Amino acid sequence: MSRAQVVSLVALIAAGLAFSYCGTSTTTSTTPVAVVVATPAPTPVPAPTDCELPHDGGPGCAPPCYLGPGTGSGVNCPLHGKADPFLFNAVAQAVTDQVAANPNLASHDPVTGIITVSGANRLAFFNAVVNELNTMPTICAAKNGLEIAVKDTNAYSEQYKFWLTTGVVRTDSGMLTATCTPAWF
Strand pairing partners for 142? Predict the structure, then answer.
């Protein structure tokens, strides 16, 4: 046998041994490990921090007004205009309802009757009042800076500022600040 034939024979035997050895278990084999891929939790949509106009009725904000936008400019509205009793009563009721519904946002002293909202809670409280007003079937409301704008027609809108800088909440006729004709929002 030639040297080349011996090398070929050794290679053939080695290959055969290796082939016959495949698939047999040994004490050094590894057990397959299942890989668990965690599905990331959906990113929560943060609640809006404000529902200033214009808004789209997103989560936490009131839906757009069913009356559509008014044609007024919102400029030069007479201060302390004559309040519409229906709108005034609706705003006063929404404020007191939200005080009761959200004791974490507003506090009520039963002895003095004084309601207060801290500066840190003012925005959330405003939004809660606006949202409650917008659940009423014939009213549209929006937060407008430090006031709430309310209307039940596009002929006029009323601006209510129901809190003082001290945090005291007003539910008396002093909360009306202006009447705009025609409605500006």
Answer: 149
Spatial distance between the Cα atoms of 154 and 179, rounded to a whole number of angstroms: 12
Report the C-alpha gap between 61 and 43 in whole angstroms.
20
Region for 162 from its dihedrals, namely left if φ exceeds 0, alpha if ψ lies in -120 to 50, beta otherwise: alpha
Distance (Å, whole) CA 184 – CA 64: 14
- Its pTM stands at 0.65
Going by pLDDT thresholds of 50, 70 and 90, the confidence category of residue 108 is confident
Packed helices 85-101 and 122-135: angle between N→C axes, nearest 10 degrees: 120
Rounded Cα gap, residues 39 and 150, in angstroms: 45
